[in-house]
Structure formats: structure tokens, C-alpha cells
Design goal:
This protein is mainly beta and 398 residues long. The chain is built from one helix and 31 strands. Strand 15 and strand 16 form a beta hairpin.
Length: 398
Amino acid sequence: MASSESTQDPDLHKELLDADEAAEEIDLQNDSAAYFDKHNDSIFCIAQHPTRPSIVVTGGGDDVAYIFDATPPAGPKLDAHGDSVNAVAFTLPHGEYVVTAGLDGQLRAYQSANTAATQWKFVASASEVEEINWVEPSPSADHPNTIALGANDGSVWVYTINAADAASPITIVQAFYLHTASCTAGAWTPDGKLLATVSEDGSLYVFDVFASTQPVVSLTADDKRFEVDGGLYSVACTATMVAVGGAGGNIKVVAQTDGVETLSFSSAPLNLLAAGSVDGSIALFDTAHRFTVRRLIKEAHEEYAVVKVAFVRSPADKTHILTSAGMDGVVRRWDARGGTTAAGQGFINEWRGHRGEGEGGGVLGFVQGGTTSSSSGGNGTIVTAGDDGVALVFQAAT
């Protein structure tokens, strides 16, 4: 047997090193219980059925959306877009429709064809803009199956979907044209009456959608107290407040060192706002005490951007849990309570399976709740949308 110091042919040595590197690339940690890999490009967006949380819809850079159950094999392929599908949503309150939206400017609606929500039929499409950036369903009980979208021209559109209306299955409720640059994000208040939208121009508008065409809140970069360099890219609402995140790390409540990508308010009795940043940090703010910083997790996802944070919504004894995902390809959970639980920044667990770490395998979105939880947003299952074109299912009950 040759020793490790024995002479070796340089070419052979290089081949062995290449083989070792290849082996290292293949030897990835994968904590997922299941996966979905039908997409041929990055998965840009993911949404969850409101009453059957194991039913998930994804949209990708391959111009296709898929609906699948997080446990059985994949369901329908929704493939009529001409460009990347970068926004998807189920309508509320019952998930009767699913909508897909893309960089081709199309909004397409499909109706569930069976009670198990595994078969879907095309209803109609609308195309009023060049590119659609986001879609959000309204939780209003008085206006079911209503969605809002924001476009690259700054416009905001609100539609109601009703397949029984043969003349107009997708009806325009409102259209707003106040933003002067791309509308980057939107969020409804919990009662579904007010819609907050933000833009690259640094403006925030809040609309009473079903009562008026004029905004009830109007803040722009012309007001130096509200100005955020680089524009606004995230927004979150409670019944009484709205928080926005900007490119420069500003939340208009505090600042992180880089752009704020994602925001999430906790459920009562906690009074917290979580903000995830491009610098890899997560900040927790106390909304009941002038938005003081409760905790700053500086390297929540090391130096990689935090793409999404979301508090668990059910069961009630788990709503202190915050889920995060980043471009490092990792999903993590944190205990947001203070006291001894803050040890180790409140870290609970992590799940790996995407490539991540700058290798084109970051997590671009996730939904939680499902096979082991009774409602959307619950504690049991996390399904991810990967930049590597794969959706992974993690059994994450804690």
C-alpha cells in the first residue's frame, strides 16, 4: 500500500481531486420527507389552499404552474403562460379558485373541479398590464374570491372571480394608478377591507377598496420623514398598523444594515414584528412599546439574504414560533419569546435539502401547515419553493 506521501502523476492527482469535489457536491444533507421536481427552472412563488393546506400551487421560471398535494403524487400542470409565473394564490375563504400571474402580464383563474381540490379547470384570464409582480387574496368575508395584484407600471388592480358569471368571470373591482414606479408588494388587513401597497418610488398607499377610490393613507418620498433610499419592497398589516421595508434597510420603525425583504406580524398575545434582511439578519420588534428592538439575530442565515419570515398561526400554543428561509437554502425556526428561550437567539431547529450558499439553490418562498396541522399557517409541515427548481416537504412539527 502506497503512503500518502508517495509520488503521483499530476494529471491523475487532478482527476482524483476533481472526483473528490464531485463527491462532495453530491453529498448534500436532505432533511425533506418528500419532494416535487417537475419544474425545469427556479420556483419563484408558492401558495397554500386555505382549507386543505396540503394542497400547494407553485409557479416557476419555466412559465408553468403546478398544483400538487404535499403527500401523494403531483396534480395538474397549468401551462398557458408565455413567461415566468412569479405569483400564485388560492382565493379566500374556501380556496374555490387558484390564480396564477406572470411576467407575461396574464392573470389566469382556475376553479376546483372536485371536493378534494385535486382537479382544476380553467375559468378565464385577464391581461391589463405588461408584468405582474405580486398577487394577494382578500380575506374579506363580504367579498369572497377577491384578489389584488401589483404591476411593473405601478398600477394596482383588484378583481373578483365568479365562474357562474359567464359574461364576466373575472370582474375589475378597482384599479389604482398612484404609484409612479413598479408596485413591489401589497398586503390586506385581516378583515380584508383595506389594502396597503408599496413601490420602488418609495410610496405607501392604503386603500379602502370597497368604499372609495381615494387612498385613506398616502405617504411618499416627497415627505422627508418617510423617504427611504432605493424604494420600498415589503409590507405587512395588522388591523391597526402597517409596516414597510425598504432597500436601504429601513422599516420606518428602525433600520437594519441592508434591504428589508420580508415582514411578518405575530398573532396575539405576542406583539411582535419580524423583519428579514438581505444582510442575513432577522430583527424582532415590540409593536406594543414603540417598536423597540426585542432581538436582532445577526446571522440568522449567515451572510445570505433572508427571503421570507412568517409566524406560525396555529395551534394557539405555537404562535411564538417564527419560520425563516434564505438564499443559503436552509429553513430555520426560532422561538420569538423572551427570557431563557432567547438563549442561542431562540434557535429551535433547521432543515436542509436545497443547494443554497450561492449555488443557485436558495429558498425563494415557503408555506407552512398541512399534513400534521389542521389549518393553513400551522405548525406541522413546511413546503419550500427552491431556486434549484425543486419543492421540498419538511415534517417540521415542534
